[in-house]
Amino acid sequence: MYRTAAVVTVFSAIEHGLGFLYRMILSRVLGSEGLGVYQVALTVFAVFLTLTSSGLPITLSRTLTAHKTHGNARGERAATSAAITLTLSFALPLVLLLLLFRPAVSTLFSDARCADLFYILILALPFTSVYAILRGSFWGNKRFLPYSLIELIEEIIMIAAGILLLVVWDSTLPLVRLAAIAVIISYFCSFAISVVCFLWMGGRLSSPKGQIKPLLSASAPITAMRLSSSLVNFLISVLFPARLMASGESSARAMSAYGVVYGMVMPILMIPSTLIGSIALVLVPEFSACFYRKEKEKLSALTERALNAALLISAVLIPLYAVCGEDLGVLLYSNAQSGVLIAACAPILVPMSITMISTSLLNSMNCERQTLGCFLLGAGAMLLSVILLPPLLGSGALIVGMMCDYMITAVCSLVLLRKKTGRLRSKGYFLRTAAATAGVALAGFLLRKLYVLIFGFVPALVATALSVCLLELLVYALAALYRPKALLQGKKSPFRRRSAKLFGT
Question: d(Cα 264, Cα 272) in Å, to the nearest integer?
């Protein structure tokens, strides 16, 4: 499990790091307005990609595991064929209908440029949907290297194509359109590479008879939850600029405000997802096994360690964002507003991290419907904020909405976890984390003021960040949020013993 988590974490970290650098390039080349247009088109495309392939890859991986357990090689081939058949049966008609009704669909966008980009992206829908299925087959067969490597290659190709089209090539086409073309180039390449890898590693297809209905039924709850998330993001991308324009803002300023939040701030906020995703990868199989064996004491202990890990990850980043956020926005994006919002969003990391880990744990216990209900409650609060608050708060309406969304979802998820596992034992850890984080942040603010008086902009930022990190190592150890000696012990110790030593549980 450690090797698997390490492989996925390394590739995911590199991929996210490259993607973050590309966002920096886009923010400077396209500007906040162009980035907003680009982000809206991607958000709407994500709705259709979720509909065609969201729940199928993970369902296929589980199905392949079941067939392998029973030595049913034909069932494996049939399940993969069924998944490809299902995704194409959704994707191809969707593309055809969207092309036929383009004038009507285009009216859904508040900016005509968003519609143009969306219709560039939608051409790749069948290809990237099949690619998602093939990744699911790699995962089900425990082929973790191609699973992670192809995703990384896709990111590299998109960045290379984007830089070539946006920076090197002298074209008369709008820059946002060139950015969309770079995306579909990467989609086509990842599809081709995944097909070659699938066939080269012995992958074969056969008649999907008898596999289509079970796959469709099993994937429906997962697809429903992810589709709901994509639809909410779509509604936000449409409603937020429209509400700003209704309050007197121009279309350009409305798109700029959306681009700052979702194109600049959100990539920073999602940094914890890489580490938390790896923790979930390690924990979920053991967690699921304990659940089916009805070992409530072990479930409670594992839940405590998972929540503690999520809290520690957020605690490490909150002081950095709160103290250095304003300067980071200027340094990374040349946009002061993004820095103000990064600093303001620092507290959101706590409910966001709790939501990420608790949702994974609940889904491992077949609680997909309950987690969908939690999500919908939080999404309702988010949509209300987007509808009611833009005239009063501007971009701040999205920040308030996100805080309400994650707070509601986190509380509901914790209530469900307590019901399923018997009890939650992270209250003391949470209080120590809150006190230690507040102390580090306060010291960081004071040090930042001192460094600004002594150094220039960049040296002061570097000195502040390093000082905050050193303070965290010291203060969090004194607060018993982690045990330094546990980090240096043998790599082969079992997860339960190693995590217990690390978090003192």
Answer: 16
